[in-house]
Design goal:
heterodimer; A: 452 residues; mainly alpha; MetI-like fold; three-stranded antiparallel β-sheet; 20 helices; B: 265 residues; alpha/beta; Rossmann fold; four-stranded antiparallel β-sheet; globular
């Protein structure tokens, strides 16, 4: 009974007659609208804060990877050490290993120290060389093998500093942190300070990070992302060439030609489900089909690209079908009404109108594939240290390589903090790649839309 | 027996362009068209009138097999165009539609230039040998569509930029560019204002000289104004088919009379 009376009491009353007075109902509605707006603005603000934090932390931590400390040293390429016979026979020069170059480097460092007038605290060359990357000797050897006629000359070399020295110039390493470090001592840092004042130790732009290959765990200063960038690039080509035609053809058939029956329904459900399948599942499928069954080479971008194609296809098919569906049926009727065949209708009228959507979907799919790591784990593209860039186009597809996200993952799990910096730097490059792809998508979209 | 059918056909050909016999249309479980028989004459405007959902548009779309695009649609009976069954298995609907053009309810120009809109049909049917030929066809079609004077200076402007009435006349020009023999119009004026409607109606009257025109319309006045023959459809049945003047002045069927006088529909 009481419920009944409550209900009658709560019944809306006749609105106030004057328009100048806001009635209770309107005030309530306006208040809830205001609240909703506030929620929206808060949500966007939170999102923006996270975005700013993300981008600034990536930039802050990763920007160091784009700078590299080097020592410019005058190295005397002694004939007595490098080419005892004096014949400049390349085979004989090649017999001198990197160990044979170490004394030359030691001498060069000693001379540099003498020139700036500082006392040399180290007797042993081994201690002096700790300031340099262990790859420095290799750098010299490569130069000599490429230019055997320079043996005997004194040549200025920009040699990579070791990761600790590099870290000192980037404020990652301090005298305190070196107290228990076996690789470098605070005495080294005093020497580095002096050499820096003399302009011998310098921090410069690190091109080899962008173009170079990965290095072993002990030489982070040599590691670059260039080769795995090529790996990603070749994979993207495979994905584009395989997924776009297959995806678009499948969507056009399903959307425009196929009859609606249980079988096409089944296919449709499966495509939607495939889009949600975890990517590692595609990885194991790729391992089983492409490597174990078809015997494609392991760790090859071709296989990686094919696995990513499987993963991208549902995305492309779904977005292509959506954009085909969005083309008004009146256009199809118009074309059919003039006597265009189904195929002419699709290719002359429907597809051009759907093109912006198809391209956007494809590039989103590609971007997704570009950032994918998990499926690459199973086909051996994670953890592979690609030390040399592929020699040609075919090798690019078939020779073992890594991919950018896999490389980043690899660096992030290595112990040396210098690798941590490289991982962030790699992420910057990966994001630049993604941004470029998105810009291309926008430009293509605009261009196709201009044609109405 | 055979001879008789032949003479019958010969007789029909003299008088009628399209003859439909016992046409039934089913959409899944719905019986949309029930046993329609009609003879459509050449160089005549035939109007299909009737209340919404009576099947007049469905029947119109049977005449150029536009219903083929609908999976669940099933057509039985015979529809003869110049004595040939258009639902024969050997007939390619694409070829048929080049002969039987269609104009739709909503103007639907392609999102291309005015020129390309009109030139598309001749191009895909190979009607022009060269560019000059195509230019001629486009100009002739646009003149027949009574829109040439308005667009001759901007043939390469987008067809979608025209006003609604102009767009519909462009669509008519596009339909006549393939030199069809029959022109089907599905409520061509329902999306247009009265002035544009008057222009299109005038155009339909001119088109009668060259084509057999079949027009579906909701407006009885329009049917009375433009057509010589009128067919009245009701609930999937062809109730009455006769000269327009007779239908509007002296209908035989009481249903026709009630519709025309506004009591049903």
């Amino acid at each position: 009974m009481s419920d009944m009376t409550d209900m009658t009491a709560a019944r809306p009353q006749k609105p106030v007659n004057s328009l100048l007075v806001q009635d209770a109902n309107t005030a309530r509605r306006n208040a809830s609208e205001k609240r909703f707006r506030a929620y929206g603005i808060t949500a966007i603000a939170i999102g923006l804060v996270f975005l700013v934090v993300l981008i600034s932390s990536i930039l802050f931590k990763g920007v160091g990877a784009f700078q590299q400390t080097t020592l410019t040293l005058q190295v005397e390429l002694l004939e007595a050490k490098l080419d005892k016979s004096g014949t400049r026979d390349l085979d004989k020069i090649k017999k001198v290993t990197t160990f044979g170059y170490n004394p030359l480097i030691d001498d060069a460092i000693r001379r540099a120290i003498d020139e700036i007038g500082v006392e040399n605290p180290f007797r042993k060359g081994k201690d002096l060389r700790k300031m340099l990357s262990s790859g420095a000797a290799g750098q010299l050897r490569e130069f000599v093998i490429a230019n055997p006629d320079r043996i005997g000359d004194t040549v200025a070399f920009k040699l990579l500093a070791s990761s600790r020295v590099d870290g000192y110039l980037k404020d990652r390493v301090s005298r305190e942190s070196l107290a228990r470090d076996k690789n470098l001592t605070p005495v080294h840092l005093d020497l580095i300070d002096a050499l820096r004042d003399a302009g011998i130790v310098r921090k410069g732009f690190n091109m080899s990070f962008i173009t170079g290959a990965d290095a072993s765990e002990s030489r982070p200063e040599q590691a670059g992302i260039g080769v795995s960038m090529l790996g990603s690039f070749y994979m993207m080509i495979v994905v584009l060439l395989a997924a776009l035609p297959i995806g678009v053809a499948a969507s056009i058939y399903l959307e425009e030609f196929a009859r609606q029956n249980w079988f096409t329904d089944l296919i449709e459900v499966n495509i939607s489900n495939l889009a949600a399948v975890p990517s590692i599942v595609f990885g194991i499928l790729g391992l089983a089909v492409f490597i174990q069954f078809a015997h494609f080479p392991q760790s090859a971008p071709l296989v990686g690209g094919l696995v990513l194609t499987l993963m991208t296809l549902p995305t492309i098919i779904i977005s292509t079908r959506a954009s085909l569906k969005a083309v008004p049926p009146s256009i199809r009727e118009a074309a059919l009404g003039i006597g265009a065949s189904k195929m002419q209708t699709v290719f002359h009228h429907v597809l051009p109108l759907a093109m912006p959507g198809i391209l956007t979907g494809t590039i989103i799919g590609l971007a997704q594939a570009l950032g994918e790591t998990a499926p690459l784990l199973l086909i051996g593209m994670v953890g592979y240290i690609a030390s040399n860039p592929p020699e040609g186009l075919i090798e690019g597809f078939l020779s073992p390589n890594s991919a950018m996200p896999a490389q980043i993952y690899e660096w992030a799990k290595r112990a040396d903090p210098a690798y941590y910096e490289r991982a962030w730097g790699g992420i910057i490059i990966l994001l630049l790649f993604l941004m470029t792809m998105n810009i291309i998508a926008i430009i293509l979209r605009r261009r196709f839309e201009r044609r109405w | 027996m055979n001879d008789m059918t032949k003479t019958e056909k010969a007789l029909e050909m003299k008088t009628s362009k399209i003859s439909a016999k016992n046409v039934q249309v089913h959409y899944a479980d719905t019986h949309a068209i029930k046993d329609v028989n009609v003879e459509i004459e050449d160089k005549t405007v035939t109007a299909f009138i009737g209340p919404s959902g009576c099947g007049k548009s469905t029947f119109l779309r049977c005449l150029n097999r536009m219903n083929d695009t609908i999976d669940i649609c099933r057509v039985t009976g015979d529809i003869l165009l110049d004595g040939e069954d258009i639902y024969d298995r050997r007939v390619d609907p694409v070829q048929l539609r080049a002969k039987v053009g269609m104009v739709f309810q909503k103007p639907n120009p392609f999102p291309k230039s005015i020129y390309d809109n009109v030139a598309y049909g001749p191009r895909i049917h190979g009607l022009a040998r060269n560019k000059a030929d195509l230019d001629d066809i486009v100009e002739k079609s646009l003149r027949r569509g009574a829109i040439w004077n308005e667009v001759k200076d901007r043939l390469h402007a987008p067809g979608t930029g025209l006003s609604g009435g102009q767009q519909q006349r462009l669509c008519i020009a596009r339909a006549v560019a393939t030199e069809p023999e029959v022109l089907l119009m599905d409520e061509p004026c329902s999306a247009l204002d009265p002035i544009a409607t008057a222009q299109v109606e005038e155009l339909i009257d001119e088109l009668r000289e060259n084509f057999s025109v079949v027009i579906v319309t909701h407006s009885m006045q329009q049917a009375a104004r433009v057509s010589q023959k009128t067919a009245f459809f009701h609930m999937g049945n062809l109730v009455e088919y006769d000269d327009t003047t007779k239908i509007f002045t002296n209908p035989e069927d009481p249903r026709t009379e009630s519709y025309i006088t506004g009591r049903i529909g």
